[in-house]
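Protocol check, entry for the methods section draft. Step 1: assemble the input record (protein sequence plus ligand SMILES). Step 2: submit for complex structure prediction. Step 3: store the structure tokens unaltered in the notebook. Ligand used here: zinc ion. Step 1 record:
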Amino acid sequence: MLVWAVGSPGPIDGGPLERIDREVPVPGPMQVRVHVRACGVCRTDLHLAEGDLVPKHPLVVPGHEVVGMVDALGPGCTRFGLGERVGVPWLGHTCGVCRFCLDGRENLCIAPLFTGWDIDGGYAEYVVAEEDYVYSIPATFSDEEAAPLLCAGIIGYRALRRSQLPPGGRLGIYGFGGSAHLTAQIALAEGARVHVMTRSPQAQALAIQLGATSAGGAADPPPERLDSAILFAPVGDLVLPALEALDRGGTLAVAGIHLTDIPALNYQRHLFSERALVSVTANTRHDGTTFLEAAARVPIRATTTAYRLDQAELALTDLAHGRVNGAAVLLNDRGW
Ligand SMILES: [Zn+2]
Ligand SMILES: [Zn+2]
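Step 3, stored output:
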């Protein structure tokens, strides 16, 4: 099978991915093999290719937004039948015995394995995954639409829950890319009033089109106080205006894995009156299942740009240079 693997990590324009032939993998106990139909291109894949995220083993295959059909079952599998459509996400394994796993916070597991970092991912024709970490994909989504839900969607959903948004509450969203535009659709469907702060005029227009009450500049004060806010932009400077926009008792959740340094806070202006600043780390399987059900009920729609699987390097290069409209998705169905 064809796979794209990270050879020598470095700037994407230098071609750090290698296109190689590999044996089709054989699923082990409790593992399913998935014939890949679509794989979303996440910014984390770019961090991996460029070495900001150090590959866990040589020639690791990126890709953790995988949609495909189960085409082989390892010993002991019971959850899925052959031909069933499933999604393989970032969270590929947890230990099940640490105190975080035992008390329902497996996103904080001390020995997790991640798809497309520890485990070979979906920039390939086939991928093998533990069946307990694989999701059913609701029929309302095409393969291409479903792919970005598996990371951008799930992480945004966890950030929304971490922001403690009350029913009918006022939500501020700072930064409006792939994850944010999916999260906004869930919040709006739940009855929230949504205010979007972003420097991009196109993103502001998309926010209004999706039903946001207002859209302003990246650090602008929203037109009303916020119960909750989510910072999607990886910009620490924005923590200050986001905290300042919170009403008493409000919560700001930082959704990203990376954030530039946060400037000094002023206790009275930014935190007093029981405002809270929280981070978001990975997700539990419960987050994923709950999100996919909610996403199908709305149903939310992801903006995507399709590439063929053999164009993976082009897709990452376009992402690096800001040339992708919505989420890039690699498709393995064009007979290349
Ligand atoms: Zn991701
Ligand atoms: Zn654990």
